[in-house]
Design brief:
Layout: H1 2-13, E1 17-27, E2 31-40, H2 41-45, E3 53-56, E4 59-66, E5 74-78, E6 81-85, E7 88-89, E8 97-98, E9 102-106, E10 119-123, E11 134-138, E12 141-145, E13 158-162, E14 167-171, E15 191-194, E16 198-202, E17 208-212, E18 220-223, E19 239-242, E20 248-254, E21 273-279, E22 286-293, E23 309-316, E24 319-328, E25 341-357, E26 365-374, E27 379-384, E28 394-406
Parallel strand pairs: 3-27
Antiparallel strand pairs: 1-2, 1-28, 2-4, 5-6, 6-9, 7-8, 9-10, 11-12, 12-13, 13-14, 15-16, 16-17, 17-18, 19-20, 20-21, 21-22, 23-24, 24-25, 25-26, 25-27
Length: about 400
C-alpha cells in the first residue's frame, strides 16, 4: 500500500512532464544519426504488475542523420532546448578533427500535442572544438567542459554561454589541460559532480578539481581533502541532490564487472548497481553511504549486465529515475536479436536518509543511513532501429542524455 501511495504522488508530480532520451547511432559507410525519443512518465509509474513490462517506443520526437555528423558529441539541456554539440569530425585519410557546431531540439512548442516533432536548429558554436563536452546549465548560463576520451589535445577551452549576449566566452583552463601544471595528464577516466554552484571532476590518477561559478576569476582549485586526495571512486556523470541534513547526496552507477582472482577466465559479470555518497557542504569530506541493487534481476535480460550507457534523472522530492541502454544486432556475438535493437530499462525509486551530525550542518555526519523504495517495476522500452532508418547496418548505438522536461 505504501508503494501505491508513493507512486500516486509521483504520478501527480509528473503531470505534463515527459522523459526525453537522446541516442546516437553509428552506421556503416560513415553515416550517423541522432534521435530524440519521448516517453510519458505515466507509462513508467503506472506499472502495477509484479513483473517487468515490455513496451515499444511510442514517439520519436525528432532526428537528424547524415554523413557529416561528428562522433563523441556532448548532450545537455539549456532552458527548453536539448543541445547536442562538439564531437570529432571523421575525415577519410586524415586525423580526426574536433567539432565546434552545436544543434538544438526545441521542446517549447505552440502545440501541446505529444506527437508534434521538435524544432531543430543551430545554437551558437563553441569557440573551440571539443570531444565529448560536458554541457550543463547553472544559474541561467551554460557551461561546456572538454571531455575528450580519445587523447586528443586540440582544445583546452572551458567555455560559458551568456544568453544575454548569445556568445561563448573562455574560462580558466582546467589543470589537466595545462602543460605547466603538475596534473597535466591524459584525459581518461572522467568522473563528474555538479552542484548548484560548482563543477567538480577528476581523471584517472588525479585529485578532484573544482570550479566555483560564483568566483570565475579564481580558476580551478584542488580539493586535497576530498576522496583522500584521489580521484572520484566512479566514472561518468552523477546525479546530485541537496541533502536535508546539509551537504549533497550523490548517485553514481557502477557498471564494472566483479573483480576476481585471475584463473584464465573472464571476471564474473553482474547487473549495474547504484552507488550512493555524501559530500559535505564545504566540499571537504566524502562518505560512502550505500549500494543499491536493481530489482527483479532474476527476470532482467542478461544483456543489461553490459549496458552501453546509463543516465540518472531527478524527479524531485527525493525521487530518481534510472535509464540503462543496450544495443544488440544479429552480428553481435551471443546476442538474441534478429534485428538491430536498442533496449531501454527505465525504473524509479524514492529514497530517505537519516543521520547523526557532529554539530553543524557543514560537518560530516557521524553515521548515515539510507533506504530506498522502487516506485514501480522496471519497464523495458524496445526500439527497432532498422524500422526507422534506411541507412546501412548499425555498428553501435548508445544514449547521449536523458532529461525530464515540461510539455509547454
Amino acid at each position: 500500500m505504501e508503494m501505491i501511495a508513493e507512486r500516486s504522488l509521483a504520478l501527480a508530480a509528473m503531470e505534463s512532464k515527459y522523459l526525453y532520451i537522446c541516442t546516437c547511432e553509428m552506421h556503416k559507410s560513415v553515416f550517423d544519426r541522432w534521435v530524440v525519443h519521448r516517453i510519458e512518465m505515466s507509462d513508467v509509474l503506472s506499472a502495477s504488475e509484479d513483473h517487468i513490462r515490455y513496451l515499444p517506443f511510442k514517439q520519436v520526437a525528432n532526428e537528424i542523420g547524415g554523413h557529416d555528423l561528428p562522433l563523441l558529441v556532448g548532450c545537455g539541456v539549456f532552458k527548453s532546448k536539448i543541445l547536442i554539440g562538439g564531437g570529432v569530425k571523421k575525415i577519410p585519410g586524415a586525423h580526426p578533427s574536433p567539432a565546434s557546431p552545436v544543434y538544438f531540439f526545441e521542446t517549447d512548442t505552440t502545440d501541446r500535442k505529444l506527437n508534434q516533432k521538435l524544432k531543430l536548429g543551430s545554437f551558437p558554436p563553441f569557440i573551440g572544438g571539443k570531444a565529448q563536452p560536458l554541457l550543463v546549465e547553472m544559474k541561467g548560463q551554460l557551461y561546456a567542459l572538454p571531455g575528450d576520451e580519445m587523447k586528443l589535445r586540440y582544445d583546452s577551452h572551458f567555455e560559458r554561454f551568456d544568453p544575454s549576449c548569445e556568445k561563448w566566452s573562455p574560462l580558466a583552463r582546467p589543470p589537466i589541460w595545462d602543460p605547466d601544471s603538475p596534473y597535466y595528464s591524459t584525459p581518461v577516466g572522467s568522473g563528474y559532480v555538479i552542484t548548484d554552484t560548482s563543477i567538480l571532476f577528476s581523471r584517472q590518477a588525479t585529485p578532484v578539481f573544482r570550479f566555483d561559478i560564483t568566483k570565475p576569476n579564481a580558476g580551478w582549485s584542488v580539493q586535497e581533502s576530498l576522496c583522500s586526495g584521489k580521484s572520484f571512486p566512479f566514472r561518468g556523470t552523477t546525479l546530485v541532490h541537496d541533502c536535508v541534513y546539509g551537504g549533497f547526496i550523490i548517485f553514481a552507477i557502477d557498471i564494472e564487472p566483479e573483480n576476481s582472482n585471475y584463473d584464465g577466465n573472464w571476471p564474473q559479470t553482474r547487473f549495474p548497481r547504484i552507488l550512493v555518497y555524501h559530500m559535505s557542504q564545504d566540499y571537504g569530506s566524502w562518505t560512502d553511504v550505500a549500494t543499491v541493487e536493481l530489482p527483479f534481476t532474476d527476470e532482467l535480460p542478461l544483456i543489461f549486465q553490459e549496458p552501453v550507457s546509463y543516465n540518472l534523472v531527478s524527479l524531485g522530492d527525493q525521487r530518481v529515475c534510472l535509464v540503462l541502454a543496450t544495443f544488440s544486432s544479429p552480428i553481435s556475438s551471443g546476442r538474441w536479436e534478429e534485428s538491430e535493437m536498442m533496449h531501454f530499462l527505465v525504473t524509479t525509486f524514492k529514497y530517505k536518509t537519516e543521520t547523526t551530525m557532529k554539530g553543524t550542518r557543514e560537518e560530516s555526519p557521524i553515521s548515515f543511513s539510507f533506504s530506498c523504495q522502487f516506485l514501480s517495476n522496471p519497464v523495458i522500452f524496445d526500439y527497432n532501429i532498422q524500422q526507422h532508418t534506411p541507412s546501412p547496418a548499425t555498428e553501435h548505438a548508445l544514449t547521449l542524455g536523458a532529461f525530464l522536461l515540461w510539455i509547454f
